[in-house]
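Hello Y.,

Per our agreement to keep a running log of every chain we model this quarter, I'm adding this entry. I've kept the format consistent with earlier entries: sequence first, then predicted structure.
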Amino acid sequence: MIEIIAPALIIGLILTAIAGPLGSFIVWGRMSYFGDTLAHSALLGVALGLFLSLDPIAGVVIVTVSVAILLSTLQKQRNISSDALLGIVAHGTLALGLVLVSLKEGVRVDLLGLLFGDLLAVTFSDALWVGGCALLLAIVTKLIWNPLLNILINSDLARAEGLAVDKIRMVYMICLALLVAIGMKVVGALLITALLIIPPAGARRLASTPEQMALLASLIGMTSIILGMLASLQWDTPAGPSIVLSACLLFSLTLTRGNQS
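Predicted structure for the entry above:
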């Protein structure tokens, strides 16, 4: 039992630790639908991997990063609103992925596993590469932290001060895409986006500085991992959804705290 729980717990804690700071920018910038768009495009990545005889995760990385770059480029134009653009890309990539999977004869794809993950199926070798990827994302997040904050506060002022606004935003979106690709193997494409949004949303009600919010978001996410896994073992429920429900419960507690204060 320990051999099954330990790697799952390690990977879950690693993912939520880095999802806290990255997700905080999603909440600050009101970009929650961007995460959903990346999750929808992940299925197209799986289909691409199948057609090119690649590992599905490699296909997911290629597609999600490409979609992040595409969105970063298209959002500069003013002919269509951002939410409409995200909706078109999200549903378009999801539909294309489903069509491509249906055309690949002799291949069965576990869509539920891709969307909702199987945390208890991971191994210690998975923990190593997830940890390495998370460390890289943490370094990049640290480097762009202050510039990205300045951009969110006032992008025009940040541009006037000489910041490469478009490049920094693109780097951030690529980081999100990579996190979605990594998390897809563990908790699934849809649920990793929930962990990017729910813990930071709860932390926002408790924190007084951006740094506090990022730290609290990581702690809430990590607590959700522990509570969700305990619930999964106790009641034999799916680990991924149990974790997200735990995050929702913790978020509801922050609402109570806010009302009392």
